[in-house]
Specification:
The protein is mainly β. Helices cover 3% and strands 35% of the residues.
Length: 498
């Protein structure tokens, strides 16, 4: 079996095959650039029942700040502008929607919608939740959420990690959430970090990303920590000796972007171990804090189980999910007690239910079954299944991405949809919050204004507190003759729910 070191699978690249050959090789250093802004804009977001405020620095200089008026935008669309006397920075106040639209709702996106300027807030026309565009992609480049299982937001909500792809090569871009400014390309010792290194935010240090270190030191099976501002690297854990005691030819580790994930504390991971030729030796569950190997197993025969899609650790850190085209299995963290969860790999997310139990949420497309077209939640301990919502109700199937990263708000998942079976489907091209309970609540969030059939699928992921979500959108530039259409990263403020 050839490893994704040479065969990288991602949700996005499945629809953009022409980019697949560009994955390998270091990228030239990227120098952060300033961007011209048509107006000074900062944001105060009021959260909680009435709101919890955050202040955002202005993008331009202080003199411009002092002469820019304050604007308040309310969920009903009304706004109030007052002069700024220079005593405080100007702000735009966006109130968290306390009266969300729930249930099956087929309101379409506003046909007159146009892509806003960077940091220019607007209210979704149907669901009145505040949305703002965060990035400004170069020509021929797209900024997006790399995968729904990957956290975009750092530990304190100040920095974002977005995937910037192009025909010329891909890069990880660090963005200041307040100003939209590019902090720079994610680099480790002046080498661009690539996606097979599985970059992910440190659980507590807001300026540190953890990576698999194989791209820096070949033959070392370790995890490094990279300061996103300085590029300085330090070692977090070294598994070389223990893994080479199990597999003497062990040379590197990698992730599968189609299906991956870590524990809620971002400490436990499962990665594939490879030899120097890129062939698979097996899977290893690892604990970064202790530097221990928790368990290992081999990858199943692909001729029997179809393509190996990846592996992930549950939120509690107690279970591992392994995914193949023809089967999804759950194991204890040491790979004992293997059990079949579902007979076919589908769009999936690991999450915590309302009681704090590990669950696998999947979109079931198996025809002829009672829950075909439904989102289903499966308890990883008991394997009991709970039907959640029929996404195909009233208009055919849709493509689905699922994010269960709101670990501080257990009992919910974010759903992003694309590629509707019929244009009249109630679930077309939007973001939804779904409660993990039978007859649970369904909250409509926003339309993505993305052309899912061209690969810009509006993939969304939530932050840990489930107060914000991030998604990519091409801004309805859907003409295939336009070639690689630029996609931007957007942020939506989630309503009060539950």
């Amino acid at each position: 079996m050839t490893d994704p070191h040479f065969r990288v699978e991602t949700e996005l690249r499945s629809a953009t095959d022409d980019l697949a050959s560009e994955l390998d090789g270091p990228l030239p250093p990227f120098t952060p650039t300033s961007r011209k802004s048509p107006a000074v804009l900062a944001l105060v977001l009021l959260l909680g029942a009435a709101g919890v405020a955050y202040n955002v620095a202005a993008r331009d200089n202080t003199a411009q700040v002092a002469t820019t008026p304050d604007t308040t935008v309310a969920p009903d669309g009304s706004s109030t502008t007052v002069p700024n006397d220079g005593s405080v920075p100007p702000t735009t106040q966006v109130v968290r929607n306390a009266d969300p639209v729930t249930g099956f709702d087929s309101q379409p996106a506003d046909p007159s919608w146009q892509k806003p300027g960077v940091l220019e807030p607007y209210l979704d026309s149907a669901y009145t939740n505040p949305v703002r565009r965060l990035t400004d992609a170069r020509a021929g480049e797209f900024h997006t959420v790399h995968a729904a299982h990957r956290a975009v937001e750092n530990a304190d909500g100040t920095l974002l990690l977005t995937w910037a792809g192009s025909i010329g090569g891909d890069r990880w871009l660090v963005v200041d959430r307040a100003t939209g400014a590019e902090v720079g390309e994610l680099q480790a010792n002046d080498v661009a970090v690539i996606d097979r290194s599985d970059p992910h935010w440190h659980p507590t240090n807001p300026e540190v990303v953890r990576i698999i270190a194989d791209q820096l030191v070949r033959g070392h099976l370790r995890v490094d920590e990279v300061n996103v501002r300085t590029g300085e690297v330090s070692m977090a854990a070294d598994f070389t000796s223990e893994l080479q005691a199990i597999w003497p030819s062990a040379f590197t580790m990698t992730t599968h972007n189609a299906w991956a994930g870590m524990s809620a504390d971002r400490n436990r991971h499962v990665w594939e171990v490879l030899d120097e030729q890129g062939d698979s030796l097996g899977l290893a569950a690892l604990d970064i804090d202790s530097g221990r190997v928790l368990g290992t197993t081999v990858v199943k025969d692909e001729a029997t189980f179809d393509n190996f899609r990846g592996a992930a650790v549950s939120a509690s850190g107690q279970f591992v999910i392994t995914s193949y085209g023809a089967a999804v299995f759950v194991h204890n963290i040491d790979f004992t007690d293997e059990r079949l969860v579902h007979p076919r790999e589908r769009s999936m997310a690991l999450a915590l239910d309302g009681a704090g139990n590990d669950v696998l949420v999947l979109y079931n497309l198996e025809t002829g079954t009672d829950d075909a077209g439904w989102l289903v939640s499966i308890d990883l301990q008991t394997l009991a299944a709970t039907q959640l919502v029929d996404l195909a109700d009233g208009g055919g199937g849709v493509g689905v991405h699922l994010s269960g990263l709101g670990h501080d708000r257990p009992g919910w998942v974010m759903v992003s949809t694309y590629g509707c079976g019929t244009e009249t489907s109630w679930a077309c091209d939007k973001l939804l919050l779904v409660e993990l309970a039978n007859d649970g609540q369904l909250v409509n969030v926003a339309h993505t204004n993305a052309c899912g059939e061209r690969g810009w699928q509006g993939v969304a992921t939530v932050n840990r507190s489930m107060t914000r979500a991030y998604f990519g959108s091409d801004g309805r530039i859907c003409d295939p003759d336009e070639g690689l259409v630029g996609s931007e990263l957007y942020e939506v403020t989630l309503p009060v729910f539950g």
